[in-house]
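P.,

For your records, the input lines for the assembly:
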Amino acid sequence: MERMQQIVGRARAAFRSGRSRPLEFRIRQLKALERMVQEKEKEILAALKADLNKNGPDAYSHEILGVLRELVLAVEKLPSWAAPHPVKKDLLTMRDEAYIGYEPLGVVLVIGAWNYPFVLVMQPLIGAIAAGNAVVVKPSEVSENTARLVAELLPQYLDKDLYTVVTGGVPETTELLTQRFDHILYTGNTAVGRIVMTAAAKHLTPVTLELGGKSPCYIDKDCDLAVACRRITWGKYMNCGQTCIAPDYILCHPSIQSKVVENIKATLKEFYGEDVKSSPDYGRIVNQRHFKRVKSLLEGQKIAHGGETDEASCFIAPTILTDVSPESKVMEEEIFGPVLPIVTVKSVEEAIEFINLREKPLALYVFSNKKQLIRRVIAETSSGGMTANDVIMHSVIPELPFGGVGHSGMGAYHGRFSFETFSHRRACLIKDLRWEVVNKLRYPPGSMEMMHL
Amino acid sequence: NPYAGLVSHLRASWLSGKTRPMEYRVAQLEALGRFLDDKKQEILEATELDMGKPSFEAFFSEILLCKNELNVTLNNLCHWMKDEHVDKNLVMQLDSAFIRKDPYGVVLIIAPWNYPIHLFLVPLIGAIAAGNCAIIKPSEISKNTERLVAETLSCYLDRDFSVPLQDCFAVVTGGVPETTRLLENKFDYIFFTGSPSVGRIIMTAAAKHLTPVTLELGGKNPCYVSDTCDVTNVARRVAWGRFFNAGQTCIAPDYLLCTIEMQEKLMPALREAITEFFGSNPRESPDFGRIVSDKQFQRLRGLLGSGRVAIGGQTDEAERYIAPTVLADVLPSDPAMQEEIFGPILPIVVIANMDEAIDFINARPRPLALYAFSCDSKIVNQVLERTSSGGFCGNDTLMQVTLTSLPFGGIGNSGLGKYHGKFTFDTFSHHRGCLHRNMGLETLNTPRYPPYTQQKLGLLTTTFEVKRRGTCTLL
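Structure tokens returned:
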């Protein structure tokens, strides 16, 4: 308890010193982060390989490229993001200065997840620094090599008191959450999301929760199946299925189910070769616990492709299940693994109803040549975000807010949304002490004539 | 769970999609306008019974400001509802990327007693504009207004005569036990206005269902008066803000910070302003309100022992009248400085200079509003820059919340989230990132697919990178 109190206390004192407020200071920190990512690229890639068996180009494109992009964007846009924003005035305020000021919140907490362990602490950190806050970073202990590396590197490049890394597991995080923060951004699962929000409520701390769920993927009969299946295969099996916005399950008409399976099989061969296990581009499940969890989802299912597992290396082959029952275990929880169930539906109406009966997902996907059908699916469902005719890609556009809704989360970030998440928008009205005659209209004694003015 | 039936009934209506079309939302908003017009007299009477609210004040805050919000919303709804298209990179030029504003579903609005119509109606305007169904829980303390709302609001909203039951909106009445039971249900958004301690309870209940919240809370709003200022105008503006609604305003200037010299200059000016506003006996003025309940009255009377009574101090228990009061030489340890006053009492705490005032403010929880008065704009800006608060007004009080283009909300203990104008619409909408891609041009996607190679990576980097703009050299 004392250790966490000290850490947060030091960050708060550093924030109160005011040195994180000037834009030049923030930009220097962001540029230092950029140097860190460039100079330590080898070490970062090695940590990602050790944690998740991600290989070089894969890890670079998913974790490093995005971070560098976000850093360049933040450095370039910060002056315009942070500038006071004048607002439209009315008759009574015509002579006044009225604007929204962007101010830091104070000391914020970023809790990362293990599946994209580098980018999921770095992207929030970038926004928090850009907004002028002190930041405590708590990387996931499950991806222990990346956690250790982040703890080693950040103090070498950034202001040590303003930006701290706390490592550890559940006990350390629980202790950390008893402290008061001015915002908490948590990435992880729904159950822990509730715990984080409950802890935050004690201090009235605003939260951004990036959670998960089962992201549905509807494939219309009228679409280029080969292309659709290639894109789906890419998004589903990257990082061995351990992606919060992976297409979790497929909904399609029974008449195209076998074609879907054939197309995905063909794409899998294209991507990973005949022997998936020996492909350097196919990942592994992060640990034994998750391996056992995902493996158990295969019980009693019709395996159309894959199904091979190897406990020693936490390997689960890219797997497709067909004619899956909506009541089965694999349809209950977020899969977070390389298992793709196909549930058949007779129509898009049935698909929409199926989706709406369940918790709102983080992402939603629909494949169709018919613009009308796509518009309908968007209009009649709700999800954190969505992509039509592809998967994942809505999350790489920095101008789109990235976040969940309902059980998949609250709040959003990426790009300027990160900056706004970690800022307080303060309403400012500056009047003149003269021109009192205008004010007389509002002062008592009131009268009926005044009321009609 | 006594409210489970009601909530699931509203949820069924929500799932039917009834509240989503723009025409429906506009019809409900126009009906709210008619409610304000038709029931104006009843609203003025009910709020007078509840807290002696002067008609002029009630008209201003409960009718006029609400109609402004309605008109801003009706004038702009079409624009606010539109998909917001965003910039894309090179590879996505043929795609469509936009932010869709989705309603949340069934929302809960919990309102307090001090501006009992305004503080449920303005959030409700945004909730309806954003396409949601809503349950409104007015305060049981302002019981006449509560009854008025419960009995008449349903006559205006969702008037589908073919369907006998009210199904998209409902008013729930009751006190703490009823609100606690109501919060057992899952809502898609909760909007709460009230005290920080209850705010914590609301957020804890919301966490069980992962329901996002806006909490409009309170605190002690400091008011710094520098030595260089027009004392007469300062006194009027501060007195107006302090004594409006007999001080029962979340953004009222709670206490004054100034030098001992300024305190001396301000006192006659404040006395003059109070007399100008309320006459020599404010008890007889139709423009000065009363305290809402015996409990609040007793609490406020207990604060009168702080410092010394320089102006006012008279009370009448039967009427729940407390005179417009100014307390001089109040100490930080005095009762009046321990809690949000929420009454017609203005303590003055003497400080040596602006730096001391700023340190005093920053040592305390961040307030909902912060005021600074000075003829020197540099001083006003210094106070603004060196402090933190929900909102700020230089050289006046309260007015920052009457401009619908400014966000209204707290920070830290004074709240989270914001509303008014478009901010209310945004509060009650989920901003959904959407990308509609082309099925063709599949070759452009090749660099992202396995087998991964350095060459593919190079291509990806080129297409997805945000390049830093080079410096322009003229020579």
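Two observations worth noting. The longest helix of chain A spans residues 56-82. Chain A has 16 helices and 18 strands.

Regards
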